[in-house]
Design goal:
By secondary structure, this protein is of the alpha/beta class. It has 5 helices and 5 strands. Helix 3 packs parallel to helix 4.
């Protein structure tokens, strides 16, 4: 039996399965030799089902979220007794995730960890992330 040491990891879902695959692979590499992590897969029902079927991690399922804001907010009930949270995303999503986490996780220390994405992907995501950030600034 693994004892919980107050460390949690939230792996954010995505509509893009390749990105989710990379996020899961990154998360698995981070906790490969560590014990006592509480792992939360957060996203829509389809995203979370896909993540659980493509991962060997023992996880908590949070499948009611459609947005990054929802991912973080809906994960809070699973973070009781948590001392630190790692949020797994990708580099195009890193800034906005950190911004939202500062608003939502006021009393919980967190760290946003992201997989590096190619420059072309950053360029494609620039409009989407920019408009979502403006939307999130007024929440």
């Amino acid at each position: 039996m693994v004892t919980f040491r107050g460390l949690a990891m939230i792996i954010l879902g995505s509509k893009n399965k390749d990105i989710m695959k990379e996020r899961i692979k990154y998360a698995e590499s981070l906790i490969e030799d560590r014990k006592g992590f509480k792992v939360i897969f957060s996203g829509s029902k389809d995203e979370v089902e896909w993540m659980t079927s493509h991962s060997s991690l023992s996880c908590i399922v949070e499948d009611k979220s459609e947005t990054t804001y929802d991912n973080l907010l809906n994960s809070i009930p699973f973070l009781k007794e948590t001392k630190r949270v790692w949020i797994i995303t990708d580099s195009t999503h890193h800034f906005r995730t950190g911004y939202l986490a500062r608003k939502i996780f006021r009393d919980i220390p967190f760290c946003v960890l992201s997989i590096r994405m190619p420059l072309l992907y950053h360029i494609r995501q620039l409009y989407y992330e920019g408009t979502r950030f403006i939307h999130n600034a007024f929440l």
